[in-house]
Task: inverse folding
């Protein structure tokens, strides 16, 4: 039985753990919050008291932490040294592509394969086991990792070399938040002219204006909007490209978040 380690047992990590256990994998997990232990064990996984303990027990590690800084802290030199040669570290976190590329280079010195394996479709997709995963890494590592990802992903795309999965996820996030803003503006405008919003939304889902955020209208928490768009801005700056709509959408999302989906308040 293959043993898979998971670092980060939060909103995404917990359902991912559950799906892997149900598919017959042996899973060992760690989170900096020891209060997550009960949820991990309830899903059939073992708890590791530290990342180094987990590193010594698994040859495939999924990292589901929230931020760039946390990823760098987890994937330290001492952590990489604990892993067996030819082990795989898959970064599910949304971070800067440059960070993953640097960590992949560091991991290679220890005979470890580090790839980025970003996931789309959020908590709903995680719960249903229907995430989409972009994987940036060499073809051999991608094929080795695919059966693990298939436990909780319905779509798996080899995006290219390390770092490209982060670029793909950034593109997804940029479009998603732009759609959220556009949906609010379109529906608020139509509502002011007496249009039934529910009727309009159902109709727009049958046109070229259809988008996933509109399909699931009212469900986004917008928790990660500012972080996602800040990362997009950093990435654009790194390669010297201007993204004026992304900049504007970040400002709008900051204002929108406390009154999201309240169309009567939009534009006032």
Result:
């Amino acid at each position: 039985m293959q043993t898979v380690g998971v670092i980060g047992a939060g909103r995404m990590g917990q359902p991912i753990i559950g799906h892997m256990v149900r598919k017959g994998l042996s899973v060992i997990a760690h989170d900096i919050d020891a209060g997550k232990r009960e949820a991990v064990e309830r899903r059939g996984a073992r708890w590791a008291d530290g990342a180094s303990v987990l590193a010594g027990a698994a040859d495939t590690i999924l990292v589901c932490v929230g931020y760039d800084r946390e990823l760098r802290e987890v994937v330290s030199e001492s952590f990489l040294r604990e892993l067996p040669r030819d082990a795989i570290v898959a970064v599910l976190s949304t971070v800067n592509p440059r960070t993953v590329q640097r960590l992949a280079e560091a991991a290679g010195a220890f005979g470890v394969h580090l790839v980025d394996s970003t996931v789309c479709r959020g908590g709903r997709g995680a719960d249903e086991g229907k995430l989409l995963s972009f994987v940036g890494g060499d073809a051999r590592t991608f094929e080795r990792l695919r059966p693990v990802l298939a436990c909780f992903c319905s779509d798996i795309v080899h995006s290219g070399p390390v770092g490209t999965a982060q670029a793909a996820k950034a593109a997804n996030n940029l479009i998603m938040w732009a759609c959220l803003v556009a949906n609010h503006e379109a529906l608020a405008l139509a509502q002011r002219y007496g249009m039934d919003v529910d009727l309009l939304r159902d109709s727009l889902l049958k046109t070229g204006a259809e988008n996933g955020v509109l399909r699931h209208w009212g469900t986004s928490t917008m928790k990660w909007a500012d972080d996602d768009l800040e990362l997009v801005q950093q990435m654009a700056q790194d390669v010297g490209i201007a993204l004026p709509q992304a900049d504007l959408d970040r400002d709008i999302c900051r204002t929108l978040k406390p009154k999201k989906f309240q169309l009567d308040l939009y534009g006032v």
Summary: The CA atoms of residues 64 and 93 lie 5 Å apart. The radius of gyration is 20 Å.
